[in-house]
Design brief:
The protein is α+β, with helices and mostly antiparallel strands. It folds into 3 domains: about 5-65, RNA-binding S4 domain (Structural Genomics Hypothetical 15.5 Kd Protein In mrcA-pckA Intergenic Region, Chain A, Roll), CATH 3.10.290.10; about 70-165, Pseudouridine synthase (2-Layer Sandwich); about 165-298, 2-Layer Sandwich (Pseudouridine synthase). It has 6 helices and 15 strands. It has helices at about 15-25, 30-40, 110-120, 150-160, 235-240, 290; strands at about 5, 40-45, 45-50, 60-65, 80-85, 90-95, 140-150, 165-175, 180-185, 185-190, 195-200, 205-215, 220-225, 265-270, 280. The strands form 3 sheets. Strands 5, 6, 7, 8, 9, 12, 13, 14 and 15 form a 9-stranded mixed β-sheet that branches. Strands 1-4-2-3 form a 4-stranded antiparallel β-sheet.
C-alpha cells in the first residue's frame, strides 16, 4: 500500500475532502476516496478524516492508497519487447516509463495489463494485481523484467529470487564515481521523506558490487551487481558514495535535460525454473541517449 502527503492550498479550503482528493488525483473517483476515508486511510494532521470535512489551508493530508475492485487488472493490447518466452516464463525489455503493476495514479497501462493481454487464456498465477510477476523495476528503470506463466514456474522463480540464485547486472550513468567497490549497508524507509529509502541500522541487509566501466567528464558508466533486492537499492547505495544516478529525481539534484534516471537492468543469468537449462538474457538499451553519446562501447 502506497501513501502520499499533500498540503491544502487556500483555493481548496472550501471543498469537501472527498471532492478535493478526486480533483488532486483524477485517476481515482470521488467514491474511491470516500471508501478510503471510511476505512480510516486518510489522515489530516495525523488524525482520521471525515469525508464531509472542509480542510483548512496548510493542513497536511496523508492518503494511504489501497487497491480495490475499482482498480481491476484487465488485459490490454500493449506491445511487449520480448527477449525470451516459452510455455513457462517470459522475459521482456521494459521501457522506461512503464509501471510494472497497478498502483495509485497508474490503474492501467502497466506491464501486468500487457502481460494479461499477451497471454490471453492463461490463468497466470500470483497476486491478482501482480499476475505472474516475481520482481519489479521502478517506473523509470528500463531493462529485463521476468514473469511466470504457470503456477509451477511462479513458485520456482520466487524461490530463485529468495535464494539469490539469479545474477543481476545493471548499468547506470552516475554523476561522480563510486569507484570499484562493494557496498554492504542495510536499507530502510527514510525517517522524514516518505518516498525515499535510506541506509539505516535497522534496515534490511543490502549488498551491491560496483565497477566503473568508462567516464566522460563528471559522468561515469557503472556496472552494478546487486545481490539483494531492496527497494531503490542501487540508487541509495550510489547516493551514499556521492555518485547518484544521473537524472534521479529522488536522490540527486534535478536536471531538466534528463527525462528519467539513467538506470538499466542489463542482464539476468539463471537456470530455467523448469528445465534447469542455463539462461542468459540481455536487454539492449532502447534509448540511444542512455549510453552512446556519452560512452563509446563495443
Amino acid at each position: 500500500m502506497d501513501s502520499e502527503t499533500i498540503t491544502i492550498t487556500s483555493a481548496e479550503s472550501n471543498l469537501r475532502l472527498d471532492k478535493l482528493l478526486a480533483q488532486r488525483f483524477p485517476d481515482f473517483s470521488r467514491s474511491y476516496f470516500q471508501h478510503l476515508i471510511d476505512q480510516g486511510l486518510v489522515l489530516i494532521n495525523g488524525s482520521k478524516a471525515k469525508k464531509r470535512l472542509l480542510p483548512h489551508p496548510g493542513n497536511e493530508v496523508e492518503i494511504c492508497f489501497q487497491l480495490t475492485p475499482e482498480i481491476d487488472v484487465i488485459p490490454e493490447n500493449i506491445p511487449l519487447d520480448i527477449l525470451f518466452e516459452d510455455e513457462h516464463i517470459i522475459a521482456v525489455n521494459k521501457p522506461a516509463g512503464m509501471v510494472v503493476h497497478p498502483a495509485p495514479g497508474h490503474p492501467s497501462g502497466t506491464f501486468a495489463n500487457a502481460l494479461l493481454g499477451h497471454c490471453r487464456g492463461l490463468n497466470i498465477p500470483g497476486d491478482p494485481y501482480r499476475p505472474g510477476i516475481v520482481h519489479r523495476l521502478d517506473k523509470e528503470t528500463s531493462g529485463v523484467l521476468l514473469a511466470a506463466k504457470t503456477s509451477k514456474a511462479h513458485a520456482a522463480l520466487v524461490q530463485l529470487f529468495a535464494s539469490r540464485s539469479l545474477k543481476k547486472t545493471y548499468l547506470a550513468i552516475t554523476t561522480g564515481s563510486p569507484g570499484n567497490r562493494t557496498i554492504d549497508a542495510p536499507i530502510g524507509r527514510h525517517p522524514i521523506h516518505r518516498k525515499q529509502m535510506a541506509i539505516a541500522e535497522n534496515g534490511k541487509p543490502a549488498l551491491t558490487h560496483f565497477e566503473v566501466l568508462a567516464k566522460d567528464g563528471p559522468h561515469h558508466l557503472v556496472q552494478c551487481r546487486p545481490e539483494t533486492g531492496r527497494t531503490h537499492q542501487i540508487r541509495v547505495h550510489l547516493k551514499s558514495c556521492n555518485a547518484p544516478v544521473l537524472g534521479d529525481k529522488l536522490y540527486a539534484k534535478p536536471d531538466s535535460k534528463i527525462l528519467r534516471h539513467m538506470l538499466h537492468a542489463w542482464k539476468l543469468e539463471f537456470n530455467h525454473p523448469i528445465t534447469q537449462k542455463p539462461l542468459y538474457i540481455e536487454a539492449p538499451c532502447q534509448e540511444p541517449q542512455f549510453l552512446i553519446p556519452l560512452f563509446c562501447r563495443n
